[in-house]
Automatic annotation (TrEMBL):
NCBIfam families: chitin_NgcE (TIGR03851)
Region of interest: Disordered: 40-59
Gene3D superfamilies (UniProt xref): Periplasmic binding protein-like II
Keywords of this entry: Signal, Transport
Transmembrane portions of the chain: none
PROSITE patterns documented for this protein: TAT
Cellular compartment(s): Cell envelope
InterPro entries recorded: Bact_solute-bd_prot1 (IPR050490), Chitin_NgcE (IPR022386), SBP (IPR006059), TAT_signal (IPR006311)
Record's protein name: N-acetylglucosamine/diacetylchitobiose ABC transporter substrate-binding protein
Superkingdom as given in the UniProt entry: Bacteria
The gene coding this protein: ngcE
UniProt entry tagged with the keyword Acyltransferase: no
Length: 481
C-alpha cells in the first residue's frame, strides 16, 4: 500500500484511515481523535544547517558536521537495512551525529513536529499511520527531491541517480508537474499469492479465467479448504488483485478514469463484471469463514497454514509471514485471473509499483543530509542488502545479481517478466488516501465481500464517495498526465 502500501498496520503496507476536515485540512485516525494535519506550518521552525561544500564525493553539499535525524516505519521490512545504510552515512560523515529511530506510529509521533516546524530530515512515511501524501504535497510540506535525482549515483559518478531507478519510480513521486516529492524505495509486486504445494495437491494450475477460478475453489472446498482469505479488517488489500483485474478486463484507461475521479468511472462495465466476479466468492462460500474479522497477520497465518488457497497481497508478505510459511510451501504470486478471452489485456497483467515512500520535509534542518542518506540507500550494495534481508526488490534497477532469490521474490521477478509492458499502477492510494482506504476499501469493498452490500450497491456507494472527493475543494486533485 505500498507499499504501500505498502501498507502494514502493526506490519508492512498498512496505511492510515485518514479523515480530512474540509475547512482546515484536519485528519483523524481511529482512536486518536481529531488532530491538526501535518500540513500547518505552526511554530517558528528550526534553523537550517549551513550547506557544505559540493565535491565529487559530496555532490549534494552535505554539511559534514550537521546532525541527521532519520525516522523509519518499523514494519514488515524491519529496520536492519536502514541501520546498515546509516552506518555508511556515519562512515562518510564521521563528524555528524545521526539520530535514527523506528516506529509504527508515524503520524502521531511526527504530526506535532510538522506543526511546530521541527520535522526530522528523512522519513519513511508508511504504515497504518501514514501521513496523507496529498495533504503534505498540497500544503508545500515536502522538499523537492530533484537535486537528489540529478546528483551522481553513489556507485557511478557518470550516471545520475534517476538513471539507476526502475521505470515509473520518478513519476510516482510526482503529483502535479516536474517536482518529485517522494522516493519510493521498495518495489512491490501486488497480486494473488498462493502455495504451489497446495495447488499441486489439488492437481491444479493457477486459474487464468474466472470460471476456472470458481471451479478450483469448488474443488478445494470439497477438501475442506477455502478458496480465498484476505485482511478483513483492512479490506483495501482486495484491490491488490481486483484493480489489475479491472484493467485486464476493460483496459488501463478504466483505472486512469477512476484515479482521475471522472464522473461514472466506477460504473464502467469492467468494474461491474469484476465486482460481480468477486462477489461470487462470497455467495458460493469460497471465502474462509470469519475472514471479515481477521487482520492482515491473522489472514496471512491462516493462509500459510493451508486454510485458504489464495490471498491478495504485496511482495512484503514473504518477509512479514516468514515465521509461519512452511519451508516446502512453494510461495508464489500470480497476476489476477481474468474473465475470459474478451478481456482487453492478456493474462499476466499485474500491479507493480514503488512502495515504502521516503520523504524529506521542506522544513528539515538538514535536507541535504536526508537526500544523501537516500543516495546511499540507492547504491547497488545497499539495494542488494535490502533484497537479501527482506526478500523484496528496491527502486534500484538491478541489485539481484549474486543473490539467491527466495521463492516469493523469484516468483515476483518471473511475474514481472511475464507482464512485460502490461504493468498497471493505480494512484488512488497515493493521491487520495482516505478515499481509497476508508471509503472504497472499508465501506465499499469490505461491506460487499462480507455480504452486506450487493455489487450494484457497492458501486453506487463507491461512485458517490468518488464524486464527493471530486467536489471537495479542500482536497488537491491530481490527474494522469
Amino acid at each position: 500500500m505500498g507499499s504501500t502500501a505498502h501498507h502494514r498496520a502493526e506490519g508492512v503496507g498498512r496505511r492510515d484511515l485518514i479523515k480530512r476536515s474540509a475547512a482546515l485540512g484536519l485528519i483523524a485516525t481511529p482512536g486518536m481523535g481529531l488532530l491538526s494535519a501535518c500540513a500547518s506550518s505552526g511554530g517558528d521552525g528550526q534553523d537550517k544547517a549551513k550547506q557544505g561544500k559540493k565535491t565529487a564525493k559530496n555532490p549534494l553539499g552535505v554539511n559534514d558536521t550537521a546532525g541527521l535525524e532519520f525516522v523509519l516505519f518499523d514494519g514488515g521490512f524491519g529496520k536492519e537495512y536502514a541501520e546498515d545504510a546509516v552506518k555508511i552515512y556515519e562512515h562518510d560523515f564521521p563528524k555528524a551525529e545521526v539520530k535514527f529511530a523506528a516506529t509504527q506510529k508515524i503520524q502521531s509521533t511526527l504530526q506535532p513536529r510538522f506543526n511546530q516546524g521541527t520535522p526530522p530530515d528523512l522519513i519513511d512515511n508508511s504504515g497504518a499511520e501514514q501521513m496523507d501524501m496529498g495533504v503534505l504535497v498540497g500544503k508545500n510540506q515536502l522538499a523537492d527531491l530533484t537535486a537528489l535525482l540529478d546528483a551522481p549515483s553513489y556507485d557511478d559518478p557518470g550516471k545520475k541517480v534517476r538513471d539507476t531507478l526502475r521505470p515509473g519510480i520518478v513519476e510516482m513521486g510526482q503529483f502535479d508537474g516536474d517536482p518529485v516529492w517522494i522516493l519510493y524505495y521498495a518495489y512491490t509486486v501486488y497480486g494473488v499469492w498462493y502455495s504451489q504445494k497446495a495447488l499441486d495437491s489439488l492437481d491444479a494450475a493457477y486459474p487464468e479465467t474466472w470460471d476456472d477460478m470458481l471451479a478450483l475453489c469448488a474443488k478445494a472446498k470439497k477438501k475442506g479448504i477455502a478458496g480465498w482469505t484476505y485482511a478483513g479488517k483492512y479490506p483495501y488489500y482486495i484491490p491488490f488483485s481486483l484493480y489489475p483485474m479491472i484493467a485486464k478486463v476493460g483496459g488501463r484507461e478504466v483505472l486512469d478514469a477512476i484515479d482521475n475521479l471522472e464522473p461514472n468511472a466506477w460504473k464502467h462495465p469492467a468494474v461491474k463484471a469484476c465486482f460481480e466476479a468477486y462477489y461470487e466468492l462470497y455467495k458460493k462460500g469460497y471465502i474462509l469463514q470469519g475472514t471479515p474479522g481477521l487482520d492482515h497477520i491473522q489472514s496471512q497465518t491462516a493462509w500459510a497454514k493451508g486454510k485458504a488457497l489464495f490471498l491478495p497481497n504485496g511482495s512484503w508478505v514473504e518477509n512479514e509471514s516468514a515465521n509461519v510459511i512452511p519451508p516446502d510451501f512453494g510461495l508464489a504470486v500470480s497476476a489476477p485471473s481474468g474473465l475470459d478471452a474478451s478481456d482487453k489485456l492478456p493474462f499476466g497483467t499485474i500491479w507493480a509499483s514503488g512502495g515504502e515512500p521516503f520523504i524529506v520535509p521542506a522544513k528539515a534542518k538538514n535536507a541535504e543530509g536526508g537526500m544523501e542518506q537516500l543516495r546511499i540507500m540507492l547504491s547497488e550494495a545497499s539495494s542488494k542488502n535490502f533484497t537479501a534481508k527482506v526478500k523484496s526488490l528496491t527502486a534500484f534497477n538491478g541489485g539481484t545479481s549474486g543473490i539467491t532469490l527466495t521463492p516469493g521474490l523469484k516468483s515476483g521477478v518471473a511475474a514481472l517478466e511475464k507482464a512485460g509492458s502490461n504493468v498497471v499502477n493505480p494512484r488512488l492510494q497515493d493521491w487520495y488516501v482516505q478515499l481509497q482506504k476508508e471509503k472504497i476499501g472499508v465501506s465499499g469493498l469490505g461491506e460487499m465481500m462480507a455480504g452486506r452490500l450487493t455489487p450494484a450497491e457497492a458501486i453506487r456507494k463507491i461512485q458517490s464517495f468518488a464524486d464527493e472527493a471530486a467536489k471537495d475543494s479542500s482536497i488537491k486533485h491530481y490527474k494522469h498526465q
